[in-house]
Amino acid sequence: MGKFWTVFKFHLREAVTSKSFIIGNLITLIIIIGIFGFSHFSSKESKDKVAFINSTSYQTNIEQLNKGLDSIKLVSEEQRNLGKLKQQVKDGELDGIVEVKDNNGSPSLSYTYKSFADQELVAILTQKIQQIGINKTIAESRVDPNVAAKLLAPISVKNIALKDTTGTVGIVYVFVFLMYLLILGRGQMIANTITAEKASRVMEIMIPKVKPIFMMYGKILVQLVIGLADIVVMILGFLVSYALGWFNGNQFSLFGFQIDLSNLTPFIIACFIIYFVLGFLLYAIGYAAVGAVVSRTEDLGSVSFPIILCIMAAFFVGMTSIFSPESTLVTICSYIPVTSPIVTFSRILSGEAGYIEMGITIVILLASIAILNHLANRIYLNGVMNYSGKVKFKDVVQMAQKH
Protein backbone atom coordinates (compact mmCIF):
# COMPACT_ATOMS: atom_id res chain seq x y z
CA MET A 1 0.00 0.00 0.00
CA GLY A 2 2.99 2.26 0.50
CA LYS A 3 3.62 2.32 -3.26
CA PHE A 4 -0.05 3.05 -3.93
CA TRP A 5 0.01 6.11 -1.65
CA THR A 6 3.21 7.25 -3.32
CA VAL A 7 1.52 7.06 -6.72
CA PHE A 8 -1.64 8.69 -5.37
CA LYS A 9 0.21 11.60 -3.75
CA PHE A 10 2.33 12.14 -6.85
CA HIS A 11 -0.68 12.38 -9.18
CA LEU A 12 -2.65 14.46 -6.66
CA ARG A 13 0.16 16.99 -6.27
CA GLU A 14 0.57 17.13 -10.04
CA ALA A 15 -3.18 17.67 -10.58
CA VAL A 16 -3.69 20.27 -7.84
CA THR A 17 -0.69 22.37 -8.87
CA SER A 18 -1.49 22.26 -12.59
CA LYS A 19 -2.50 25.47 -14.34
CA SER A 20 -5.64 23.84 -15.75
CA PHE A 21 -6.94 23.02 -12.25
CA ILE A 22 -6.17 26.46 -10.79
CA ILE A 23 -7.39 28.49 -13.78
CA GLY A 24 -10.40 26.23 -14.36
CA ASN A 25 -11.67 26.54 -10.79
CA LEU A 26 -10.97 30.27 -10.76
CA ILE A 27 -13.06 30.68 -13.92
CA THR A 28 -15.82 28.52 -12.40
CA LEU A 29 -15.85 30.69 -9.27
CA ILE A 30 -16.00 33.89 -11.34
CA ILE A 31 -18.79 32.52 -13.56
CA ILE A 32 -20.99 31.49 -10.60
CA ILE A 33 -20.51 34.80 -8.79
CA GLY A 34 -20.98 36.63 -12.09
CA ILE A 35 -24.31 34.89 -12.82
CA PHE A 36 -25.75 35.87 -9.45
CA GLY A 37 -24.26 39.36 -9.68
CA PHE A 38 -25.73 39.95 -13.12
CA SER A 39 -29.13 38.61 -12.01
CA HIS A 40 -29.06 40.82 -8.90
CA PHE A 41 -28.10 44.08 -10.60
CA SER A 42 -30.16 43.53 -13.76
CA SER A 43 -33.28 43.13 -11.60
CA LYS A 44 -32.69 46.68 -10.33
CA GLU A 45 -32.67 48.18 -13.80
CA SER A 46 -35.54 50.40 -15.02
CA LYS A 47 -38.79 48.67 -15.88
CA ASP A 48 -39.93 48.06 -19.44
CA LYS A 49 -41.94 51.02 -20.70
CA VAL A 50 -45.35 50.32 -22.28
CA ALA A 51 -47.67 53.06 -23.55
CA PHE A 52 -51.31 52.85 -22.40
CA ILE A 53 -54.04 54.45 -24.49
CA ASN A 54 -57.69 54.65 -23.43
CA SER A 55 -60.00 56.70 -25.65
CA THR A 56 -63.20 54.94 -24.50
CA SER A 57 -65.75 55.77 -21.82
CA TYR A 58 -64.30 53.13 -19.50
CA GLN A 59 -62.68 54.83 -16.53
CA THR A 60 -59.15 53.54 -15.87
CA ASN A 61 -56.59 54.50 -13.23
CA ILE A 62 -53.01 54.13 -14.43
CA GLU A 63 -51.70 53.73 -10.88
CA GLN A 64 -54.12 50.88 -10.16
CA LEU A 65 -53.22 49.19 -13.45
CA ASN A 66 -49.51 49.36 -12.62
CA LYS A 67 -50.04 47.44 -9.40
CA GLY A 68 -48.98 43.83 -9.90
CA LEU A 69 -46.69 44.66 -12.83
CA ASP A 70 -43.22 44.03 -11.43
CA SER A 71 -41.11 44.49 -14.54
CA ILE A 72 -43.33 46.82 -16.59
CA LYS A 73 -44.42 50.42 -16.21
CA LEU A 74 -47.54 51.66 -18.01
CA VAL A 75 -47.41 55.28 -19.19
CA SER A 76 -50.57 57.15 -20.28
CA GLU A 77 -50.55 58.36 -23.87
CA GLU A 78 -53.04 59.97 -26.29
CA GLN A 79 -54.67 58.29 -29.29
CA ARG A 80 -53.33 60.98 -31.63
CA ASN A 81 -49.76 59.93 -30.82
CA LEU A 82 -50.32 56.31 -31.92
CA GLY A 83 -48.27 56.59 -35.15
CA LYS A 84 -45.32 58.12 -33.31
CA LEU A 85 -45.55 55.49 -30.55
CA LYS A 86 -45.49 52.62 -33.07
CA GLN A 87 -42.30 54.04 -34.56
CA GLN A 88 -40.78 54.15 -31.07
CA VAL A 89 -41.64 50.46 -30.64
CA LYS A 90 -39.91 49.67 -33.95
CA ASP A 91 -36.84 51.64 -32.86
CA GLY A 92 -36.73 49.91 -29.47
CA GLU A 93 -37.40 53.09 -27.52
CA LEU A 94 -40.72 51.71 -26.31
CA ASP A 95 -41.50 48.12 -25.32
CA GLY A 96 -45.12 48.05 -26.44
CA ILE A 97 -48.49 49.77 -26.78
CA VAL A 98 -51.74 48.72 -25.09
CA GLU A 99 -54.99 50.25 -26.35
CA VAL A 100 -58.40 49.92 -24.70
CA LYS A 101 -61.17 49.74 -27.31
CA ASP A 102 -64.95 49.42 -27.27
CA ASN A 103 -66.17 46.19 -28.84
CA ASN A 104 -69.99 46.20 -29.05
CA GLY A 105 -70.46 47.49 -25.53
CA SER A 106 -67.60 45.46 -24.04
CA PRO A 107 -63.98 46.50 -23.52
CA SER A 108 -61.22 44.90 -25.58
CA LEU A 109 -57.44 45.24 -25.72
CA SER A 110 -55.07 45.80 -28.60
CA TYR A 111 -51.43 44.95 -27.84
CA THR A 112 -48.67 46.16 -30.15
CA TYR A 113 -45.12 44.84 -29.69
CA LYS A 114 -41.96 44.46 -31.74
CA SER A 115 -40.99 40.78 -31.56
CA PHE A 116 -42.09 39.01 -28.39
CA ALA A 117 -45.35 39.47 -26.50
CA ASP A 118 -45.36 39.75 -22.72
CA GLN A 119 -48.05 37.22 -21.85
CA GLU A 120 -47.99 38.15 -18.16
CA LEU A 121 -48.82 41.77 -19.04
CA VAL A 122 -51.67 40.66 -21.30
CA ALA A 123 -53.13 38.33 -18.65
CA ILE A 124 -53.05 40.93 -15.86
CA LEU A 125 -54.46 43.79 -17.95
CA THR A 126 -57.16 41.57 -19.46
CA GLN A 127 -58.40 40.69 -16.00
CA LYS A 128 -58.32 44.29 -14.76
CA ILE A 129 -59.97 45.82 -17.84
CA GLN A 130 -62.62 43.09 -17.84
CA GLN A 131 -63.46 43.94 -14.24
CA ILE A 132 -63.77 47.61 -15.19
CA GLY A 133 -66.22 46.67 -17.93
CA ILE A 134 -68.23 44.49 -15.56
CA ASN A 135 -68.43 47.29 -13.01
CA LYS A 136 -69.69 49.72 -15.65
CA THR A 137 -72.36 47.27 -16.84
CA ILE A 138 -73.51 46.67 -13.27
CA ALA A 139 -73.80 50.43 -12.64
CA GLU A 140 -75.68 51.10 -15.87
CA SER A 141 -78.07 48.16 -15.34
CA ARG A 142 -78.62 49.14 -11.70
CA VAL A 143 -77.89 45.64 -10.50
CA ASP A 144 -77.50 45.17 -6.75
CA PRO A 145 -73.71 45.13 -6.16
CA ASN A 146 -74.08 42.33 -3.57
CA VAL A 147 -75.95 40.13 -6.05
CA ALA A 148 -73.41 40.89 -8.77
CA ALA A 149 -70.54 40.04 -6.43
CA LYS A 150 -72.07 36.63 -5.67
CA LEU A 151 -72.70 35.89 -9.35
CA LEU A 152 -69.16 36.85 -10.35
CA ALA A 153 -67.36 35.31 -7.39
CA PRO A 154 -64.80 32.74 -8.64
CA ILE A 155 -65.10 29.13 -7.51
CA SER A 156 -62.83 28.35 -4.59
CA VAL A 157 -60.14 25.79 -5.49
CA LYS A 158 -58.06 24.05 -2.84
CA ASN A 159 -54.91 22.34 -4.09
CA ILE A 160 -53.86 19.26 -2.11
CA ALA A 161 -50.52 17.78 -3.23
CA LEU A 162 -49.75 14.32 -1.89
CA LYS A 163 -46.13 14.85 -2.92
CA ASP A 164 -45.21 18.48 -3.42
CA THR A 165 -42.02 18.46 -5.51
CA THR A 166 -42.11 22.06 -6.72
CA GLY A 167 -39.32 23.06 -4.36
CA THR A 168 -37.03 20.19 -5.42
CA VAL A 169 -37.21 20.53 -9.21
CA GLY A 170 -34.44 23.13 -9.34
CA ILE A 171 -32.22 21.12 -6.99
CA VAL A 172 -32.68 17.99 -9.11
CA TYR A 173 -31.79 19.93 -12.26
CA VAL A 174 -28.61 21.39 -10.76
CA PHE A 175 -27.41 18.14 -9.19
CA VAL A 176 -28.20 16.00 -12.26
CA PHE A 177 -26.32 18.42 -14.52
CA LEU A 178 -23.45 18.63 -12.03
CA MET A 179 -23.13 14.85 -11.74
CA TYR A 180 -23.20 14.44 -15.53
CA LEU A 181 -20.64 17.18 -16.10
CA LEU A 182 -18.12 15.96 -13.51
CA ILE A 183 -18.36 12.26 -14.35
CA LEU A 184 -17.96 12.94 -18.07
CA GLY A 185 -15.18 15.50 -17.71
CA ARG A 186 -13.11 13.72 -15.06
CA GLY A 187 -13.61 10.34 -16.72
CA GLN A 188 -12.21 11.68 -19.96
CA MET A 189 -9.28 13.10 -17.99
CA ILE A 190 -8.48 9.62 -16.60
CA ALA A 191 -8.50 8.05 -20.07
CA ASN A 192 -6.37 10.87 -21.54
CA THR A 193 -3.78 10.60 -18.74
CA ILE A 194 -3.40 6.83 -19.12
CA THR A 195 -3.20 7.00 -22.91
CA ALA A 196 -0.63 9.83 -22.77
CA GLU A 197 1.58 7.85 -20.34
CA LYS A 198 1.28 4.79 -22.54
CA ALA A 199 2.17 6.75 -25.68
CA SER A 200 5.25 8.26 -23.97
CA ARG A 201 6.42 4.77 -22.87
CA VAL A 202 6.42 5.80 -19.22
CA MET A 203 4.47 2.62 -18.47
CA GLU A 204 7.48 0.50 -19.39
CA ILE A 205 9.46 2.13 -16.61
CA MET A 206 6.70 2.18 -14.00
CA ILE A 207 5.19 -1.31 -14.31
CA PRO A 208 8.28 -3.24 -13.05
CA LYS A 209 8.27 -1.02 -9.93
CA VAL A 210 4.56 -0.46 -9.23
CA LYS A 211 1.59 -2.79 -9.71
CA PRO A 212 -0.62 -1.67 -12.60
CA ILE A 213 -3.71 -1.73 -10.35
CA PHE A 214 -2.03 0.83 -8.07
CA MET A 215 -1.36 3.07 -11.05
CA MET A 216 -4.93 2.74 -12.30
CA TYR A 217 -6.63 3.43 -8.98
CA GLY A 218 -4.16 6.17 -8.15
CA LYS A 219 -5.41 8.10 -11.18
CA ILE A 220 -9.06 7.26 -10.52
CA LEU A 221 -9.04 8.37 -6.89
CA VAL A 222 -7.12 11.54 -7.71
CA GLN A 223 -9.77 12.54 -10.25
CA LEU A 224 -12.47 11.69 -7.70
CA VAL A 225 -10.82 14.04 -5.19
CA ILE A 226 -10.48 16.71 -7.88
CA GLY A 227 -14.16 16.27 -8.77
CA LEU A 228 -15.17 16.77 -5.14
CA ALA A 229 -12.89 19.81 -5.03
CA ASP A 230 -14.74 21.21 -8.04
CA ILE A 231 -18.00 20.84 -6.12
CA VAL A 232 -16.49 22.66 -3.14
CA VAL A 233 -15.42 25.54 -5.40
CA MET A 234 -18.97 25.78 -6.79
CA ILE A 235 -20.41 25.81 -3.27
CA LEU A 236 -17.92 28.55 -2.39
CA GLY A 237 -19.23 30.59 -5.31
CA PHE A 238 -22.80 30.22 -3.98
CA LEU A 239 -21.71 31.19 -0.47
CA VAL A 240 -19.86 34.30 -1.67
CA SER A 241 -22.92 35.36 -3.71
CA TYR A 242 -25.18 34.75 -0.73
CA ALA A 243 -22.87 36.71 1.60
CA LEU A 244 -23.01 39.65 -0.83
CA GLY A 245 -26.81 39.50 -0.69
CA TRP A 246 -27.21 38.68 -4.38
CA PHE A 247 -29.84 35.98 -3.88
CA ASN A 248 -32.37 34.84 -1.32
CA GLY A 249 -31.17 31.76 0.55
CA ASN A 250 -34.65 30.28 0.93
CA GLN A 251 -35.67 30.48 -2.72
CA PHE A 252 -34.14 31.81 -5.91
CA SER A 253 -34.33 31.14 -9.62
CA LEU A 254 -31.57 29.57 -11.70
CA PHE A 255 -32.02 28.97 -15.46
CA GLY A 256 -35.78 29.30 -15.02
CA PHE A 257 -36.02 26.76 -12.17
CA GLN A 258 -37.08 27.76 -8.67
CA ILE A 259 -34.63 26.43 -6.06
CA ASP A 260 -35.66 26.19 -2.43
CA LEU A 261 -32.53 25.56 -0.36
CA SER A 262 -34.66 24.54 2.64
CA ASN A 263 -35.16 21.22 0.80
CA LEU A 264 -31.40 20.67 0.74
CA THR A 265 -31.25 18.51 3.87
CA PRO A 266 -28.22 16.57 5.18
CA PHE A 267 -29.93 13.39 3.93
CA ILE A 268 -30.13 14.76 0.37
CA ILE A 269 -26.49 15.88 0.49
CA ALA A 270 -25.43 12.44 1.75
CA CYS A 271 -27.41 10.75 -1.05
CA PHE A 272 -25.76 12.98 -3.64
CA ILE A 273 -22.28 12.16 -2.35
CA ILE A 274 -23.03 8.41 -2.26
CA TYR A 275 -24.46 8.24 -5.76
CA PHE A 276 -21.87 10.62 -7.18
CA VAL A 277 -18.98 8.54 -5.78
CA LEU A 278 -20.50 5.23 -6.92
CA GLY A 279 -21.37 6.61 -10.35
CA PHE A 280 -17.94 8.16 -10.71
CA LEU A 281 -16.16 4.91 -9.80
CA LEU A 282 -18.31 2.92 -12.24
CA TYR A 283 -17.55 5.17 -15.18
CA ALA A 284 -13.96 5.94 -14.12
CA ILE A 285 -13.04 2.24 -14.14
CA GLY A 286 -14.49 1.97 -17.64
CA TYR A 287 -12.56 5.05 -18.79
CA ALA A 288 -9.35 3.62 -17.30
CA ALA A 289 -9.81 0.38 -19.22
CA VAL A 290 -10.52 2.30 -22.42
CA GLY A 291 -7.45 4.48 -21.97
CA ALA A 292 -5.26 1.42 -21.54
CA VAL A 293 -6.23 -0.33 -24.79
CA VAL A 294 -5.38 2.50 -27.21
CA SER A 295 -1.89 3.64 -28.08
CA ARG A 296 -2.71 7.13 -29.37
CA THR A 297 -4.89 9.85 -27.92
CA GLU A 298 -6.44 10.36 -31.37
CA ASP A 299 -8.04 6.90 -31.14
CA LEU A 300 -9.51 7.55 -27.71
CA GLY A 301 -12.67 9.28 -28.93
CA SER A 302 -13.97 6.37 -30.99
CA VAL A 303 -13.18 3.76 -28.32
CA SER A 304 -14.75 5.76 -25.47
CA PHE A 305 -17.87 6.63 -27.50
CA PRO A 306 -20.01 3.82 -25.95
CA ILE A 307 -19.21 5.14 -22.46
CA ILE A 308 -20.17 8.66 -23.54
CA LEU A 309 -23.46 7.34 -24.89
CA CYS A 310 -24.20 5.67 -21.56
CA ILE A 311 -23.58 8.82 -19.50
CA MET A 312 -25.59 10.90 -21.99
CA ALA A 313 -28.48 8.44 -21.72
CA ALA A 314 -28.29 8.72 -17.92
CA PHE A 315 -28.39 12.52 -18.21
CA PHE A 316 -31.41 12.63 -20.53
CA VAL A 317 -33.36 10.12 -18.45
CA GLY A 318 -32.39 12.15 -15.38
CA MET A 319 -33.84 15.26 -17.04
CA THR A 320 -37.01 13.30 -17.84
CA SER A 321 -37.28 12.17 -14.24
CA ILE A 322 -37.56 15.80 -13.10
CA PHE A 323 -41.11 15.98 -14.42
CA SER A 324 -42.04 12.26 -14.64
CA PRO A 325 -40.25 10.50 -11.77
CA GLU A 326 -42.93 7.79 -11.61
CA SER A 327 -42.80 6.80 -15.31
CA THR A 328 -41.94 3.22 -16.30
CA LEU A 329 -38.79 4.28 -18.19
CA VAL A 330 -37.42 6.23 -15.24
CA THR A 331 -38.24 3.45 -12.77
CA ILE A 332 -36.49 0.80 -14.89
CA CYS A 333 -33.45 3.02 -15.49
CA SER A 334 -33.07 3.57 -11.75
CA TYR A 335 -32.01 -0.10 -11.48
CA ILE A 336 -29.68 -0.14 -14.51
CA PRO A 337 -26.12 0.54 -13.25
CA VAL A 338 -25.08 2.99 -15.99
CA THR A 339 -28.14 5.21 -15.41
CA SER A 340 -28.83 4.42 -11.74
CA PRO A 341 -26.62 7.06 -10.04
CA ILE A 342 -28.30 10.03 -11.73
CA VAL A 343 -31.83 8.65 -12.09
CA THR A 344 -32.17 7.15 -8.60
CA PHE A 345 -30.92 10.34 -6.98
CA SER A 346 -33.48 12.32 -8.97
CA ARG A 347 -36.27 9.96 -7.83
CA ILE A 348 -35.13 10.29 -4.19
CA LEU A 349 -35.51 14.08 -4.37
CA SER A 350 -38.96 13.77 -5.94
CA GLY A 351 -40.06 11.38 -3.19
CA GLU A 352 -40.56 8.40 -5.54
CA ALA A 353 -37.65 6.28 -4.27
CA GLY A 354 -37.75 4.91 -0.72
CA TYR A 355 -35.10 3.33 1.49
CA ILE A 356 -35.65 -0.15 0.02
CA GLU A 357 -35.10 1.07 -3.54
CA MET A 358 -32.05 3.02 -2.42
CA GLY A 359 -30.60 -0.08 -0.79
CA ILE A 360 -31.25 -2.23 -3.87
CA THR A 361 -29.70 0.28 -6.27
CA ILE A 362 -26.64 0.76 -4.07
CA VAL A 363 -26.11 -3.01 -3.88
CA ILE A 364 -26.48 -3.30 -7.67
CA LEU A 365 -23.99 -0.47 -8.17
CA LEU A 366 -21.46 -2.03 -5.78
CA ALA A 367 -21.80 -5.41 -7.48
CA SER A 368 -21.42 -3.79 -10.92
CA ILE A 369 -18.32 -1.90 -9.77
CA ALA A 370 -16.82 -5.15 -8.41
CA ILE A 371 -17.46 -7.02 -11.69
CA LEU A 372 -16.23 -4.15 -13.85
CA ASN A 373 -13.18 -3.78 -11.60
CA HIS A 374 -12.29 -7.45 -12.13
CA LEU A 375 -12.53 -7.09 -15.92
CA ALA A 376 -10.85 -3.67 -16.04
CA ASN A 377 -7.86 -4.93 -14.06
CA ARG A 378 -7.20 -7.57 -16.70
CA ILE A 379 -7.79 -5.17 -19.57
CA TYR A 380 -5.53 -2.56 -17.99
CA LEU A 381 -2.75 -5.05 -17.24
CA ASN A 382 -2.78 -6.54 -20.74
CA GLY A 383 -3.57 -3.30 -22.53
CA VAL A 384 -0.96 -0.86 -21.22
CA MET A 385 1.86 -2.89 -22.77
CA ASN A 386 0.04 -3.48 -26.06
CA TYR A 387 1.33 -1.08 -28.72
CA SER A 388 -0.35 -2.62 -31.74
CA GLY A 389 -2.55 -0.58 -34.08
CA LYS A 390 -6.24 0.06 -33.63
CA VAL A 391 -7.77 -2.25 -31.07
CA LYS A 392 -10.95 -4.10 -32.07
CA PHE A 393 -13.71 -5.23 -29.74
CA LYS A 394 -12.58 -8.87 -29.93
CA ASP A 395 -9.10 -7.77 -28.79
CA VAL A 396 -10.61 -6.13 -25.70
CA VAL A 397 -12.56 -9.33 -24.96
CA GLN A 398 -9.35 -11.35 -25.21
CA MET A 399 -7.61 -8.94 -22.83
CA ALA A 400 -10.43 -9.35 -20.31
CA GLN A 401 -10.21 -13.15 -20.53
CA LYS A 402 -6.43 -13.31 -20.32
CA HIS A 403 -5.00 -13.68 -16.80
UniProtKB/TrEMBL annotation:
Q: Which Pfam families match?
A: ABC2_membrane_3
- Transmembrane stretches, by residue range? 21-41, 166-184, 220-247, 267-290, 302-323, 356-376
Query: Which is one GO molecular function term here?
Result: ABC-type transporter activity
Q: What is the lineage of its organism?
A: Bacteria, Bacillati, Bacillota, Bacilli, Bacillales
Keywords, sorted A to Z: Cell membrane, Membrane, Transmembrane, Transmembrane helix
Record carries keyword Calcium: no
What is the membrane topology listed in the Swiss-Prot or TrEMBL record? Multi-pass membrane protein
The record places domain ABC-2 type transporter transmembrane at 19-372
Looking at the UniProt record for this protein, which Gene Ontology cellular component terms does it annotate, in alphabetical order? plasma membrane
Q: What is this protein called?
A: ABC transporter permease
Localized where? Cell membrane
Native source species: Heyndrickxia camelliae
